[in-house]
Structures are given as structure tokens and as C-alpha cells.
Amino acid sequence: EADEHAHSNGAAMRFIVSGSIEYAGTELTQGDWMFIPKDTSYSFKAGDMGAVMCYCYPCCCVPK
Prior knowledge:
This protein is mostly beta strands. Helix content is 0%, strand content 61%.
């Protein structure tokens, strides 16, 4: 479970590798993804069997 939070360093992508999560009232399962814009509050909860996710964030060392 991830409590309500936001990322100020940039947008984020999360891909569901296995299992499931509930995000914004929707169940996401293997192959689904979610996009969270910069500074957007969100939370999610893993399903009964847990979840494996791939997280993609902007690199903090790349000049903007």
C-alpha cells in the first residue's frame, strides 16, 4: 500500500508486472500501467495476491 503522496521531481510511470493494485477506483492487473503527472497526489493498494511493478521516474542527474 502506498499512502497519498506526490512526486515533485517529475511525472512517473508504473507498469504492473504481476498481481494487481487498486488505483483511483480501478483494478490494474498484469500489463496495465498508470501515469502520474508531476505534483499530482495519488495512492494505491496492492491486491490480495500482492503486486510486482516497474517504476519509471525522470533521472535527477540529467540537465533539464
